[in-house]
Every structure is written in C-alpha cells, then in structure tokens.
Amino acid sequence: MREYGKRIPEPGRRLSEVLDRLGIGRQPYELLVVRSTTNGSTIAEEIVAANWATQTELAMATASVLGLDAESPEIDVTVIKDARGAGRHGLRHLVGMTHDYQARAYIAPDLERLDEIAAALPRLNAERRMVHVATPASIAAVREADTMRERSDAARLSLAADLNRWSARDVMTPYQGSLLTLLAVGFLAAVAQWGGGVGFGLHLGFTMVAFVCTAFRAIVLLSTISTEKSVSACPLPIETGSMPLYSVLVALHREAEMAPSLAAAMAALDWPASRLEVFFVCEATDPETIAAIESAIVPYPHFSVVVTPASNPTTKPKALNFALPLTRGDYVVLYDAEDIPHPGQLRDAWTTFHNADDRLACLQAPLVVTNGTSGWRQAHYAIEYAVLFRMLLPWLAARSLPLPLGGTSNHFRRKHLMSAGGWDSHNVAEDADLGVRLARLGFRTGTISSPTLETSTVRWPDWRNQRTRWIKGWIQTWLVHMRDPLLTSRQLGLTGMAAFQIVFLGMVASSFAHIALLVQLAALGLTGALLEAGPSHGWLYAIDAGNLVLACLVFSASFLHVALPGERPLATKLWAVWAYWGLVSYAGIRAMWQLSRNPHLWEKTPHTAVGKVPAPSGDARRPAQQT
Predict the structure, then answer these.
(1) What is the tens place of the pLDDT at every residue in 554-587?
(2) Which of 240, 334, 549, 592 gives a 20 to 30 Å CA spacing to 541?
(3) In this prediction, what percent of the chain has a pLDDT beyond 90?
(4) Which bin fits 349, alpha (ψ -120 to 50), beta or left (φ > 0)?
C-alpha cells in the first residue's frame, strides 16, 4: 500500500471491532481505505461492493458494537412527517412509528463515524431504546414506499401537470386544430375549383421536400468527410481520483427471458460497484419479469427492482419518471432490456462531461445493430442506425443543434434532467422530444464513441409497430414544439429552428413523399399515363426519378463512409433501399391514422438477446482474508 504515497490511518476502536466481527484483517482494511479514497465512497460501501459482507451482516455487526438492536431487512413503519409534510428520513436515517405506536429511529451509520456515534448515545438516556441499526436498502425501501403515491401521480401526469404546453397529452392546441381545419377546408375548395391541378401542386411540393432532405443529407456527408481528420474522438483524461455516483435506469416490460443477459451486461460496466446503482424498472402487472430480474440480480447488492403501479398511460417514459426520484447519482444513464453497452461507456461519458462546460446536459452513445446479416429488413435497420448514430447525430451535436435522442444509452447530468422535467409520459417518442426540450432550455447534447450493442426486430409486425410508434412520436414532438413557433425560434435560434424543421418535419414528410413518388412512377411504368397532369408535366417525373436516385446514392455513400469492417457486407443490400423506404412510408401512414385514433398507444417491441455478454469487470467472489 505504500506505493499510493500516503499512510493508511489506523481504524477507530469501534471500526476495528466491526472489522474483526466480519473477519476483515489489516491488509484488506488498507485496500478498503484506498478504494474508498479513490472512488469517493465509504468503507461500508466498499465492503458490500466487494461482497466481503452483506448489508445485513454489516448492520448486525455495527449494532452489536454500538449496543443497539439490529432491525430485520424489512422495516414495517409509518414514516413520521415534519411540519411541512415531508418525510423525516434521508439516505442514512429514518424516523417512523410502528403499528403499536412505538417511535423508532433507524440509522445506517458510516463506519468511520462509529466512535462519534458511540460517544453521543449515552446522552439519549431512555430514548436510546428507540434507536435501531438498519441497512441502507431497508431505509431506501421505506422511503420508496412512502413516496409511491406521489411519484406515481407525478409520473403519470409528468409535464402535463405543471407544463402542459410542453406535453403531448393534448395532441393539438385549439389554435393548431383550427388551423388544420382551415387547411382541410381550403384543400377541398381547391380540389373543387382546380381539380387535378391540386394533385400536381402536391406532387411538386413532395418533390421539393424530398430534394431538401436529400440535400441536407449530402451536406452532412460532405461536411463529415472534410472535417473528420481534425476531430479527436478521445476526450482528455481526468486527473482527479474521486468517482461520482452513477445511476442506471433500465425499463422492462414482459421481458423475463432477458434478465440473465441484462444483469450480466450491467455487471460488466467498468465502474466501481460502490459508486454505481442500477434500477430495473418493471410494471406491477408483469410479475414474471419482476421475478426473473430479482433472481438474476442476487449476486449484485447494488442492483434493485422498482415496481411501477398500474396506471395510464402505460409507457416507458412514465416508468422512468416513477423511478427517477429514487436515483442519487450525479449522472443518470438509460438502457433497454436487450442492450450490451461497452464496459467503458460510463467512463467515456464521465470524462466527456468533466471536460465540458455545465451546459452539456446529455450525451448520446452510438447504437450498433448486431443482427444485420440475419435478414433483409434487419440489414437496412442496421444501415439506418449506422448513418444516424455515427454521422447525423454527431454532426448536429458538433454544431449545438437540437437532435433527436435515441431511446437508450442517453447519459444525463441528473440536475439538468430534473430541471427539464424528465420525460413526457404522453409522448411515445419521449427521447426525441427530450432532446429538443433540452435545446430549447439552453442546454447542449453531445455524442460519445463507446457503443451499445442492440438487435433489430425480426418479425414484420414488430418492425411495423415500432416504426409506427417512432413516426407518431416524432409528429407529436413537432406539434408540441410548434405550439408557439416564434418562442421556439427565439430559443433555438434560426439555424436550430431550421435544423428542427428538416430533421423532424422534413424526415416525416419525406416518408410520405417517397410513397407518393413510388405510386406515381409505378402508375407511369404500368400504364404509361401520368396521374394528375398531362404529358407536358413529364419533366416532373424525370426530376422525381433523379431525386430517388440521388437520395439512394447519398444514403449509400453515407453508410459506406461510416460502416465498420463487419458491416461492409450489408452494402450489398443498398440497391433495395428504396423498397425499405416504402415500408417506412407505410408505417408513416399508419402513424397518422393511429395519432387521430389512439395517440398515446405504446405498441410494445419484443426484444431478443444480443449474444455473449462481456465478463463482469469486478471479482464478485469473497476473497481470502489476511490478518
């Protein structure tokens, strides 16, 4: 231990007694001190993280040394409220009342303060019998139960409670509804007046939208090619030794089979277990998944399950909002059930946050699809993800423009996430919406390079439902942030507003433009006749064909530029990208219909395991004790 350059302090009397009862000798104690100093944790947290003792064993040893009673792992009390209505409890203590009206004070003291606590206990006199030693987990469980109703109501309403103008609970404002009605009436009047000329006008409009989106992709591609050599992917190293507490949220629903691989993937994260808390958020109506996760996390004391009460809407953002108040970390990251994040991803994110100013509120890690070679649709899904997460999002982030977050591997500064109101429980693309909201509030979103492995949906209905939900959520997001266009423009700036329109409205509109273009070209090829105009307008079809070819070429070049070596074989599928976009268009039409009938419907996407999970970075075995 001398290589650390500092003398290890002698343990206090009570701490020594606790260590003796746990069978922890001098050398292991020195290791605990080094780890707690390096990680910014406590000796108790390091003992539990190393699996040298459970929280219950530690509490019993502490209680014996202090001459207090040790409480059972489950505390059955009613929390005593203070004058302001808040529960009188914290992370390390709790004041409550038993069912027979006996007052209790439960403590989970730091081992470093045992001598101080022992000196204070005699001053309590008869009240000393009220004090019991409990585990941090049991105190947290009481705190969780005490706030369940409040958190459930807040999660269910989320932004709609206090900031309804930011929420997708109402699909449209009265102003937007009136404007849409006027546009519909105007369209019908135009059809009655000009007939087929209206169709020609729509065709021309779709052609322009498609060209703008293709031009935008081309600009991103050329800019990426010209600047990538000057951009460093490696953040500057951090010289400080103290590690912040990191909170991980994983929302699951009817995914019991994912429990073993998911728990192993979270355990493989290269972050001190004493500075990591992982919450698996499950629905109360899903006992199979709850049981499977509880079984899978037994070896990991810093993993826990949060059960969300049954309430509408049944959405992922509602579940995340319910669990968020329980997190204590300076940073929060989200993962999906099938995710395998790179073990070093938390360190990558923390280093990037540390080297940036406080305006950097969020970091998006790239998602890599691992089953792209298993089918035609999966191949195009993997190609899509490669272009989105390795080109488009980094390009937007580098220019501090609003970007649509992916639904997983989002790393947040917790304080900024809380100040932004968390996730909108009524938006089925809550990730994309949050990305825009952070930008409007003056925060920045960046990207990192450490990937997360995922799988594409395999069955057609699953892909269709997932894509429908995404497009519906993007439309919801556009409608929400266009409720006051002038305010949004001031907050995002003109460039940010233009990027928002192209990325959200343009991409959604281009999906409809694509199917309209395919129908028109198919009709021309089959019948030799134009649908809405005479031969004099044939030039427009030539432009359409050129648009389609240019879009395919730009997209293909983008993929070839960012493709990983193992993804190169997917390039053989690029010739049919136009057909894949046709499926996207179908999902867009379905999204519009669903938005008018059931806007908050969350069609569940089944997940499958990625494959082999990296081995955990820490040794969970109980080491031999040395004296």
Answers:
(1) 999 999 999 999 999 999 999 999 899 989 999 9
(2) 592
(3) 59
(4) alpha
